Model the fold of this input.
Amino acid sequence: LAKDGGKHGTAVYEPSLHSAALERLQLRADLERAVVQGELVLHFQPTITLADEGAVPTVHGFEALVRWQHPERGLVPPVHFVPLAEESGLIVPIGTWVLQEACRAAVTLQLPGRAPVAMSVNVAVAQLTDPGFVQLVADALADSGLAPQQLVLEITETSLLAGAEVVAPLLAQLRAMGIRIAIDDFGTGYSSLSYLRDLPVDVLKVDKSFVDHVVGDEQGASLAEAIIAMGQSLHLTTVAEGVEGPEQAAWLTAAGATYGQGYLWSKPVPLVQAVALLTAPVREAAVQV
Ligand code: C2E
Ligand code: MG
Ligand code: MG
Ligand code: MG
Done:
């Protein structure tokens, strides 16, 4: 292309123009269209009960995880667009859609005669601090008919560095409505633990980087054990993220983690498969990756 660039007048191949910056501009424009045209989809990954050692593991709830069904690129994972959406502010309309869709899905997942299914939704700090967020959540619950006790909002530990003074009153309002608050990627935020005293929180999601080292790594196991013990003594629910092996699950159960989430049981799946996970025993229903 560069060689015959002259033939096409100004269309000279310029590697620098095709750099990451241009790619990002294109992606941003595409993403704006994606929201409007309904190209975003949710997948759901189950959280599994661990607390009762020896008991049959069951699905406690699901985490809603956004994907982008791109017309040319296929199914794009959030790592390729959520950070960009956060920088550009597009995370606010995206997050609104995710919240509404996840609430509707939770109602679909509420099968007759079954204990209430929890639905976890990831919330970026820009969404949380956007004026009207609390009302938006109230509307999403009212429109879908989902009970607030079934909704869990996940905030990453890193995003709390933005300031507990701003975030704490918002979380308190949401909690007063009956919604639960989870700290996502717990242990990776390099923040002072004092925020656990200042913020109204219900759930700690122990980051995969700890779960990865619970088997065959004495230091790693000690760290995970300390986090779970701290969660217990603060009367918080603990969810171990990224559980891939049965040995990890056994270790986490013995350590007293409340729930597990990971490829061992299921990767995130479309809604129809999530419904199937609820109706079959957990081990048999496990989706192979
Ligand atoms: P997260 O909230 O910590 O979600 C857990 C991620 O770990 C998911 O990646 C999930 O697929 C992956 N995972 C679960 N179990 C395993 C396992 O056993 N092994 C491995 N290797 N990975 C596992 P996913 O879906 O790609 O999402 C990545 C991140 O993108 C999420 O991390 C979250 O921070 C963000 N994200 C996803 N959906 C949304 C959303 O709707 N809004 C916002 N603000 N962020 C979102
Ligand atoms: Mg999460
Ligand atoms: Mg996480
Ligand atoms: Mg994460």
Remarks:
- Residues 45, 65-66, 77-79, 82, 91, 95, 98, 122, 124, 154, 184-185, 241-244, 261-263, 268 surround C2E (ligand 1) (CB under 6 Å).
